[in-house]
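Quick question: what would this complex look like in 3D?
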Amino acid sequence: MIPHAPLNDALELASEWPQLLAQAQRLAHSFALGGHGRRRAGAGDIFWQFRPAQAGDSLRAIDWRRSARADDQFVRENEWQAAQSVQFWVDTSASMYFASEGSSKHFRAAMLALAVGVLLSDAGEKIGSSDGLLPAKPGRAQIPALAQVFSRISDDDFGTPQTDDLKPHSLAVFVSDFFGDFAKLERAVTSAADQQIAGALLMVLDPQEVNFPFAGRTLFESMSGGLRYESQKADGLRAKYRSALQDRQAALASLAQSVGWQFQCHTTDQPASAGLMWLYQALECRR
Amino acid sequence: MSIFGVLGFTTPWLLLGLLALPILWVLLRSVPPAPTRRRFPGVALLLRLKDDDMQADKTPWWLLLLRALVVASLIIGLAGPILNPAPVSDNGSDLLVVMEGSWADAPDWAEQKQEALRVAERAENSGRKVAFLQLTAPGSAVVFSAALLAQRQIQTAEPKAWRPEGDVLGFISELEDFDSYWMASSLDWPERTELVSELLAHGELRVSLSQTPTMGLLPIIVTAQGVEVHAIRLNAGQAVQVRVDLIGLDPSGVERRLQSIPLAFEADALRASQASEVPQEMRNRISRIVLAGHRSAAAVRLADDRIKRPEIAILSGEIAGREGLTLLSPDHYLTQALAPMADLIGGTLEDVLLANPDTIVLADVAKIGVKAALVDWVRQGGTLVRFAGPRLAAQSFNSIEDDPLLPVKLRAGGRTVGGAMSWGAPKGLQAFEVDTPFYGLPTPDEVSVTAQVLAEPSPDLAAHVIARLSDGTPLVTRKTLGQGQVVLFHVTANADWSNLPISGLFVSMLERLSVIGSSGNFEQQALAGTTWQLVQDLDGFGALKTVGDRAGLDGQILAASKIAAETPAGVYQGGERRWARNILGQDSVLTPATWPGAVRLVGQAVAKPKMLGAGFLSAALVMLAVDILAALWIAGKLRGKVMGTLACILIAGSSVEDVVAQTAEALAIQATRDVVLAYVKTGDAGQDEISRAGLTGLSLALNQRTSIEPVSPMGLALGTDELAFYPFIYWPITLGQSGPNADELRKLNRYIKGGGMILFDTRDSEIAQYGESTKEGRLLQKIAAGLNLPPIAPISQDHVLTRSFYLLQGFPGRSSRGTVWVEAPQSAGEVIEGMPFRNLNDGVTPVVIGGNDWAAAWAVDPVGQPLLPVGRGLSGERQREIALRFGINLIMHVLTGNYKSDQVHVPELLKRLGE
């Protein structure tokens, strides 16, 4: 009845979670209001200090209740609160639209990203896309726009994250099956890390891609048909395929570790909340 | 056709195809099964792997074998194999179909006929001429012609109740050469061997032997206590239990089974008999006895007078006190003669008349006490037989009028001839005259009469005399009296006056007078001079048929002739007497037929050729199906759900219906878990899509605006889907629809009765052309004609639909001009002062009928945008909004009923609360 889109599921998923304040060891200097106290006076909602009024302070800035208790005039200052930016890259390549049963990998990936985005924006963080199509902004209005960005379908078989428009000191979340060129991914992640960007890699896989439940003479094709591989005995290939997958996962984990990112693999037959839980913890501010 | 042993082929050259099998083997072996194509993103990882087993996969040997078998069965199946093929004679000569058609063939007559027809048809197919010959009813000649004629003859042939005759031998010997096919019973008959050799002389003879056991009933023996039934069979070998039914009229005059007698054949016995007690009164009613379960003339035995035992009262004028002289007693010889065939009763005449016997014999009784009663009894059909004697002779016959109990007037005294004191020799008998009942009986010389009573000469004396002495004086006189008769023997019943009572002639005479049933068989001599007319004849199946007038047959000839076409079995009538001629006599023997070696014997049961082609072809089909499964399995496509479903279907034996039932169940759960709006599938794909989109739009609006949260709407096929799950059904009327059938109507009526609502939408906005209603309107009338609808009326302005959620004045869809019809208010309530609405507590209207094309107005695309334009500009959007509101009101009304109508009480309740 209602058009099925990850957005709805994401809203539903996020509705049971507390808002998420993203980690921010170092925040970019921005004037956007956020949830991260900067431990100095500035724009914000939380009381920081009363300071004696100085020349130049407008009369309206003087806190008259406090000033009435002393001889001097005091100005009430709030803590400078800034927002963290979180930039998402959800792989929209053809391979992500594979689904052995149930929802596709892309659906799950977009849903998790959107759910995290909802929680982040509720906490006042800025969210956007990593490819520069949607600059990070605060507010719930970003969510549908982000969904729009995620819903584009790319013709490529496998995707590579765009890191050109990442903001320094921000957070990045890459959600993909990471079946693409590992070198390109490595380049992207390291260049992001160079810009003091922390982040998370979430590998979303289909159960078939984990279990390889094939047998017999099989011609495997990529989603666009560009890549082919013919096996005479697919069941004999299973062990090799699995070890290749484990190698890829280990490489991703070590890549993440080397730049201080986090890595996790998530399959579409797992509950979405498991993926969201991991993302929540990966991005959570632990101060 | 070529024949190899028991197997024949219609197109044997096709079998050459089997030579191609090795080629197929090689071909199949070199071509492995096609790979499965699979979309798999993980191929990126696979690309770096090396497959060890790169060599071309061979087709497994068992799959090869299976496929070779498929092709082999196809080839063999198409070659037309026939098991037990009917061999075709190559000489192509004419065919004579011979059926015996005797009573022994009756049990399996239908099978014989079928086979004869089949044989004739086969001969026709191979271009042979056919003739038909029934041995029991041969035509005048055998003419070979088209099988059609013979088939018609076969169709109408009926078995006869006699055995075949050899009289066809004559014209068969004159025919050209031909082959014969003989449907034979296992019973031998005279001149059969001659016919066999004659047929063999003309050509090939095939004999199809009947396998039915032949059995028949022998004459019944009547005993004092009951009857004794006898049966005979053709072949001994095993013990058989049969049942003999005695059939006759019951006291109410309906023919029924009177008694059953079980009869057991010993294993090695050809005959069996069983005595059974049958009450006298019941025995006299037996009309025939039958061998239960055997449908043949020999298994039926017609009863006649012989089975009856008349009741005869013998009274004598003997004076008490002479008991010692038994042989001199007037009734001693009478008792001796009658006792074996009749039940004798004694007593005084008054008592005897109360018992109403068939016959009363008065031996030398002169004075009759109850004369009037006796006359009455005779008039009602009794036979009074009187014997003369000293007392009767001594009576003075002085009265002028005749004694009604004497046939003729007697002279007093009587006379004695040939005695010691008289002239002349004892008188012998004169030959019986033609029109007397005794005509034909021999007159033995040794019978002599020494004394007699004499009749008074009178003009009518000669008419009453039925037997005379050699001198012309009457010996026996007879007179009919009413329906009965009075017979006077002018001699004594003992040997005093004559030795007639101790002669065999005496019994025959009594027989002829119907005083007693015919003793034993109808002897040839005893029947001399009698004429018998066939009244009922027996057909081969043992059924009795009344025949029309037949010429009478001489009894002597009839007794000498066997059962044949001219003298068939059946019931003959001769004067008062009935004579049943049956198939088997006391000394009948059933001999099995033997056939010379030159005859080809065909068992009826196994003669059927069996076409095996279909079996081979279906085997090939089954193997093909197995091959498909095997190929799938090899390709790895057979797993998971497919395997499960197949296992479900194949192994658990569950049918496709179960799978359908499971999906139906899933559908039912889906339909009942949440509120689901439904629409009727019209068969018009475009309209169905609009209906679906319309209800989707309405569901969306309900989701957004109300607490009703319907899920995706469902389309219904009226014939198959259950309606009860859906509170609301949208039914657009398209011209392609046919009215619901009886089943669907019943379903719809049940749905309406159960509280459902149907929104009929003619979508025509009531634009009628040249008439009162649109085509859709007429179609709707046709559909609704069978529905059990309450009276409907145009919707009133205060109907609950106007306020069940939104307050509405109109009910537009894509058009807005049509009238909306709902159930008429049941009681037209009056407008009450101060009440905003009329007090209408009616139920939910079961139908809403209109033509505003609502679904089109509600329809949304998958994104949720309106699908079809409504009106123009903003007013159009307003109309769409009102249409949606109508939809919401409608669903509210369906789900909440008249809840909103009850709001009329609110002002009153508030007033009371205030007080």
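Answer marked as accepted. The domain at 326-512 of chain B is CATH 3.40.50.880 (Rossmann fold).
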